[in-house]
Specification:
Layout (H helix, E strand, L loop, with lengths): L1 H15 L9 E4 L14 E10 L9 E2 L5 E2 L3 E11 L4 H17 L2 E2 L15 E6 L3 H11 L7 E10 L24
Length: about 190
């Protein structure tokens, strides 16, 4: 599912930003080993670097399933993305990142029709928000990637709902019993 979210962002950018030079100019970046990140030149890189539980949806109550039993609410995630364009020319970097800003500010919600096929029936929509990391967070991120700091955009993507597999079910309350303690005359 995580890859489906990254692919949804990738295909949305490909569909929204015209580029006649290439059909594969938006790539999904990854750092899977201890070698420095090898960012491809002349491409827009969409890089997922953090996954966290959405703090605002953490304590949702259980929901009823088709059988009438209650199951835990789906896990809601907030994904942290970095998007950068790799080029020796600063003007190229700024122009392409301007296009990314235009796309996500004009359409911050990706509806079901805009989602990658891996997400159909699993996620209703994605919400993309620009964020500003602190200087300390930027320093830690670029140090961890083992590359020099460069111009990049940072986005949070919400509403990635993961239904529980084999959830623990709890039946509805059938009877309540009240126990009184102490002296009723007091």
């Amino acid at each position: 599912m995580l890859l489906g979210i990254s692919r949804s962002l990738q295909q949305h950018l490909l569909a929204s930003i015209p580029n006649s030079a290439s059909s594969d100019w938006v790539v999904i970046g990854a750092l899977q080993h201890d070698e420095p990140l090898n960012l491809p030149t002349g491409k827009l890189v969409v890089f997922l670097y953090a996954i966290e539980e959405n703090p605002f949806l953490r304590n949702r109550p259980p929901v009823a399933n088709d059988a009438g039993d209650f199951v835990p609410a789906p896990l809601a995630l907030t994904l942290q993305y970095m998007i950068t364009y790799v080029s020796a020319e600063a003007t190229d970097v700024q122009e392409w990142l301007t296009e990314v800003l235009r796309v996500f500010s004009s359409s911050p919600r990706l509806a079901p029709a805009q989602l990658h096929t891996d997400l159909h029936g699993v996620v209703d929509q994605l919400v993309v928000r620009l964020r500003t990391p602190s200087v300390e967070e930027l320093n830690r991120l670029w140090t961890a990637l083992n590359v020099g700091m460069r111009l990049a955009l940072f986005y949070e993507v919400d509403a990635a709902l993961i239904p529980a597999t084999d959830p623990e079910t709890v039946g509805p309350v059938e009877r309540r019993r009240l126990i009184l303690t102490g002296d009723p005359a007091a």
